[in-house]
Amino acid sequence: MTIQHGRTYHIVNVKSDTALDLSGTDGHSILGWNKHNGDNQKWVLDNVNNQWTFKNVGTGRYLGVAGHPGDGTPLTAVDHSVGWDIWPDEVDSSVY
Fold first, then answer.
1. pTM for this structure?
2. Around 1, how many Cα atoms within 13 Å sit in the side-chain half-sphere?
């Protein structure tokens, strides 16, 4: 599967089978949650300057980082676009 600019995706953790979910409770927490096909689990991916932005369909907010990027830093929803690098898995090219 090739990621396409402007398409809407459900981002799923293949190990836990949970979806990337923007909390409907506080409007900024990013969680792994049971898949339910709600707009808060749908993300529009856009390629901007060779990086990808994730815009939530339900709120229009973007996937960002709560603080300095690094291992263990929580993800959060932010009002400005944030660029991400996406690479295919080395073993299974259908997984990123």
1. 0.92
2. 11
Annotated domain spans of the chain: 7-78
What residue ranges in 1-96 does DSSP mark as E strands?
A: 7-9, 12-13, 18-22, 30-33, 43-48, 51-56, 62-65, 75-78
Structure token digits, residue 27: 């409007």
Q: For residue 56, what are the contacts with CB-CB under 8 A and spacing of at least 6?
A: 22, 39, 40, 42, 43, 62, 63, 77
For the 7-78 domain, the top CATH level (class) is mainly beta
Is the distance from CB of 18 to CB of 11 less than 8 angstroms?
A: no
Distance of CA 81 to the CA centre of its chain: 12
Q: Is the pLDDT of residue 64 over 80?
A: yes
